[in-house]
Amino acid sequence: MSQSPEDARNFRKESRKKYSRLSFDLPADRLRRRSLGAPRTAGPQSVVEAPSKSDSPLAGSSYQSVKGQLHEELLDELSDEEFTGEAEDLLAEKIDEFVNRVLADNDLPLNESERRQLADDLRDEVLGVGPLAPLMADPAVTDILVNGPTRVYVERFGKVVKTDVRFRDSEHLVLVIQRIAARVGRRIDESSPMVDARLPDGSRVNATLPPVTIDGPTLSIRRFGRRRLRREDLRRLGMFTPEMMEFLELIVRHRHNLLIAGGTGAGKSTFLGAVCEAIPHDERIITIEDAAELMLDQEHVVRKETRPANLEGQGRITARDLVVNSLRMRPDRIIVGEVRGGEALDMLQAMNTGHDGSLTTIHANNSRDALKRLETMVLMAEMDLPSRAIREQIGSAIEFIVFVKRYDDGVRRVARITELTGLEENTPQLQDIFEFKQTGRDGRSIVGQFQATGVVPRCVHEMRERGEEINLDMFRKQV
Questions:
Q1: In whole angstroms, what is the distance from residue 194 CA to residue 346 CA?
Q2: 170 vs 149, 177, 190, 209, CA distance in Å?
Q3: What is the pLDDT of residues 15-39, one digit of tens each?
Q4: Are 453 and 434 in contact (CB under 8 A)?
Q5: Which of left, alpha, beta for 14 (phi over 0: left; psi -120 to 50: alpha)?
Q6: pTM value?
């Protein structure tokens, strides 16, 4: 949902009025802050005298106080068009010019190191995620959870811990949220107090404002890192074995439909991006996501993203709309980032009408539960289909289910790879190909091993008949 300059201006004014608790928001203090730089406009009779360095309102303040006041002054000085739409390199130049002018015009109580740091900090405050920048730079951080200006948590190695990171106040947090939303053309205010967005590195962002969250604004960031994890990276991290990776590559390359299931934070999206590496580079791929985060190696990729309704309730584009539209775009592969509703029916129909090799993810607690949830989502399409017909569609479309799980030692693993062999008396028949067996614990770490079950999937025999060299030893059960 786009945000006009007038909307941005009104929101910033209202959010400051609502959330600010700083003493310098009094009119006299705001007038003093205005004196730091040249006025935006001055009438013919206006005379503005530059303050002497000794009279600077910032004299005697601490670094954090100086930075906070300069941040406010910088936002006042930038136009709304610059704040929401200016290219980042041009905006960074204006920030540097502002800092240089302030340092020249004011006798600030900062040492040389703090003066050099001031421009960098202000650049982070305006262009990026403000105080969260150090957390975003930490590769061990997978989730950043902001419950308020003084309660910032992170997840490292599967454990959530509180940090020393602080925002100045609720207004400061709201400005960071607004900046993130504005950069992707979304709007967040009291009339639309929730937003889903993404950062340039692909990290997923969810933000809320009162009255949705009663105690104040919140921000949640699911990080995917500056470089996406590849298949080999996941193997080294213990997510699966080389044999499992080889098998997954075979079924993706030979266009077998794959459903990736798991709980929240289990690594479904990361795993989906990794297995997509096996898709040949000469195929046309269309991805459909709520927040575009998949980063694929292939060149022929069309990325689609859903859109929420505007303030008038118009303009919403759902995943189902995008799936239907994708069928008219001559796709070789359709990849749905996650099925959540009625688009499940259209996706299954696509899989059953020539669009083999499609992939998607679903929230579920195990492989069988994934099929039950998929059936429920088909019912959300409101087509009034009988249960038997839905299960037959699922049985024909889905060939393999990969269940990924984040274990309590923080390690994400492929818990099992399952083949769906069909229906028997209206019940889906599943057989595990690979599974992870936990054998004990070593302190906090889980001890176990991946192993084959001894079952050779039916598709493997078909691949061998077509001339594919496959070592059947990968499916041999270890005694």
A1: 28
A2: 6, 11, 14, 10
A3: 444 444 333 232 333 323 333 333 3
A4: yes
A5: alpha
A6: 0.70
